[in-house]
Amino acid sequence: MSHVLVVYTDDEPGVLTRVASLFRRRSFNIHSLTVGPTERPGVSRMTVVVDTDEATARRAVEHLRKLVNVLEVQQLGVGRSNVIRDLALIRVSAGPLKRSEVLQLVEVFRANVVDIADDSLVIECTGSLGKIEALVDTLRPFGIIELGRTGAVAMARGTRTALKAAVAPLRTGTGAMSV
Amino acid sequence: MSHTGAQLIWESLIREGVEIVFGYPGGAILPTYDAMTEYPVRHVLVRHEQSAVHMADGYARASGRVGVVVATSGPGATNLVTGLATAMLDSTPLVAITGQVGSGLLGTDAFQEVDITGITLPVTKHNYLVTRAEDVMPAIREAFAVARSGRPGPVLVDITKDAQQSRATLDWEGAEPKRHLRHLPLPLDRSELDRALELIRSAKRPIILAGHGIQLSNARAEVLALAERADIPFALTLLGLGAVPATHPLSLGMMGMHGESWVNRAIQEADLLIALGMRFDDRVTGKLKEYAPHAKKIHIDIDASELNKLVPVDVAIAADLGDVLRALLPAVPVADRSDWLGAIREWKGDSAVRDIKNLPDDGHLYAAHVMHDLWRLTKGEAVVVTDVGQHQMWEAQYYKHDGERSLITSGGAGTMGFALPAAIGAKFARPEAEVWVVAGDGGFQMTFAELMTAVQEDIKVNIAVINNGYLGMVRQWQALFYEGRYAATPILSPDFVKLADAFGIHGQRVECRGDLAAAVESARAAKGTALIEFKVEQEDSVYPMVPAGAALHDMIRRPAPSVLAETGSDPV
Q: What average pLDDT does the segment B232-247 reach?
């Protein structure tokens, strides 16, 4: 079963290694991991999707909380209370004869065509994990030449308090001290 | 720009209360060693960096303070790894400072460059790479805070040579750490405490599992108060020995793989386990599926990731043990559980007559005799530092540790070679204490070069080498589970008496029990470090034993003797 963890960390060199190393060390299986900046300078946000049972997911949260560079960990349930989005770029084989059929499907999935070549299209699709998998399955008979996905980015619905001041990063210097 | 980075290292250590460091110099740490001469810090020159970490570890465990290690880059740093892993698994607060090549050379495979922060990532609580003098003080100050806070552990600070040489302003206040506070336990949850109380109230056959966390939390008085008030017996983990007194009427003894049979039986029959500062290690639980099948479980540990890790529990409290018990105690009902305690006493059964120390003297010297007599002769007041293997288990079974921090041993990692260096560290921490090393012939040969460190530093530790000519614990497993094929376990030793002589220390050999007491007394009386080699029965095994993977009640007992011992045959 998939569990979605949102992890706020210091934006410093080596933090991704620490998180990845923890998952490897404890044999937590990562389905996807994304990292990016947040509304706060010096703070990064990771979305980690792990395939595991509930007890193991809770243990992963507790282990993450022990990392000095981790500010906060949220475990999001899978369901309507959260927005989970993935972005895929799909290069699909589509010569002149098949092109209109593919374009119709792109329309149905509310995806976009972002590049056209003589014999292929690049399709961009954003959505839930399920929607993207459905689009990929639909396009497969045409011949998928290349597929790239970002992995999930997740956010809880509803109101939420901002990160506490107490968990602010220690230094906002040049990052010469890498941790 | 008042100070060099090297000076800032020592300025930081002194402000953290450091009086002694264990280390070994080298190129990339030279500026720091050069600056050391200006500061009132004692440096202990080891013979191998791994021993420096074990010394700092022994120092920290004996005193409750943070141990400090200094080493150079490359091989100096990689030699720390086993020691750091040992400290990590046993939650010892350490700070290791390593030199690193100049920041301009990082990543170029320069002479004596290794990625020590990468290498030590899984065996430290946290580590730092410092490349600027102004970051030295914040990094070291935070390292101490991380090492001490929550569940303690080792932290490594890798400092480039140019960061040691360049200058920065000393700003202690500006270096105050905050990040480590992020993950400290939350205030106590009253509803969890109430559920724990309810379980304690309704239990008929409760048992306390006492672990290392009691010492780390300084919660001995609270644990004893709980046990005495509610009349609950306690069983100890290996690292829990000494956390609560072994000779207390409610003390059952050690649990687990080489625990006493009645202790393990009590755990299997209990209806409530109260696990205090312990982590249900596989050496303690045996087969998980059949572990304490009738018991509700309360688990109190400061490390939330240990709760529900291997053993699912009914009440899990992640907090400082002392805080929890102080909150619980006023509401714990006074109880009398003489039925339950009587049942456990009955299970002791014929254990005493099977006990090797009660067998008639057949002219052989058994390690159990050595441990038992050592306990009697030192009145149980020594700090004993054990290595890893059979002697470690015999010591745990026969030396009754009443005092806090009186047993220092590598429990989680099981690091051979730990005892001698850790004992030297412990003696520095508690110079007034009588410190004994108990080591096997195998482990002692791994680090005996540190005898010279003891001599050079004028340190007295007493050493009992239990020599059975085998890597005994492995041999025991080969005898029991590998049809007696002794692959690579017979081991030769040097003449330990001559070895002692070569190091300029007192040395003696004991081959029968009659000579034991006199040898121990002369070792104690000797001015400096003293070594006694005990030539013990070669193929003796540690009993009882729960085979790896078997259920806790499924023990191999010592074979019953054909001749029953008479009581009172104790020569010491």
A: 97
* CATH number reported for the structural domain that contains residue A130 in this entry: 3.30.70.1150
Band of pLDDT at residue A147, cut at 50, 70 and 90: very high
- Give the C-alpha distances (Å, rounded to integers) separating A63 from A15, A26, A43, A58, B422: 14, 9, 19, 9, 29
How far is it, in rounded angstroms, from Cα A104 to Cα B32? 70
Q: Helices (H), strands (E): how many in chain B?
A: 24, 20
CA max distance for chain A: 61
Rg (CA), chain A: 19
Looking at beta carbons, which residues of chain A come within 8 Å of B131?
Answer: 176-178
Same domain flag for A70 and A111: no
Q: pLDDT band at B356, cuts 50/70/90?
A: confident
Q: Chain A window 30-89: which residues touch B at a Cβ cutoff of 8 Å? A: 55, 58-59, 62-63, 65-72
Which domains, from first to last, does chain B contain?
3-183 (3.40.50.970), 190-348 (3.40.50.1220), 351-535 (3.40.50.970)
β-sheet bridge partners, residue B160: B100
Per-residue model confidence (pLDDT) at position A162: 62
Q: Are residues A53 and A112 located together in one domain of the fold? A: no
Specify whether the CB–CB gap between B125 and B37 falls below 8 A.
no
User: Do residues B266 and B344 make contact, with C-beta atoms less than 8 angstroms apart?
Assistant: yes
Is residue A165 within 8 angstroms of chain B, CB to CB? no
Beta bridge partners of B130: B159
Angle subtended by helix axes B472-481 and B390-398, to nearest 10: 100
Domain closes at, from A78, A105, A133: A78
What residues pair up with B99 in beta bridges, in sequence order? B159
> Are B129 and A178 a contacting pair at CB < 8 A?
yes
CA distance A178 to chain B (A): 6
Do residues A8 and A67 both lie within one domain? yes
Task: Find chain B residues with C-beta within 8 A of A55's C-beta.
Answer: 308, 312
Q: Are residues A69 and A108 in the same domain?
A: no
Spatial separation of the C-alpha atoms in residues B300 and B297, rounded to whole Å: 10
pLDDT of residue B474: 97
Q: Is residue A171 part of a domain?
A: no
Residue recorded with tokens 């030449």: A145
Percentage, residues of chain B above pLDDT 70: 97
pLDDT at A160 over 90: no
Interstrand relation of A144-149 and A82-93 (parallel, antiparallel or unpaired): antiparallel
Q: Helical H runs in B182-272? A: 190-202, 213-216, 220-230, 261-269
Q: How many residues does chain A have?
A: 179
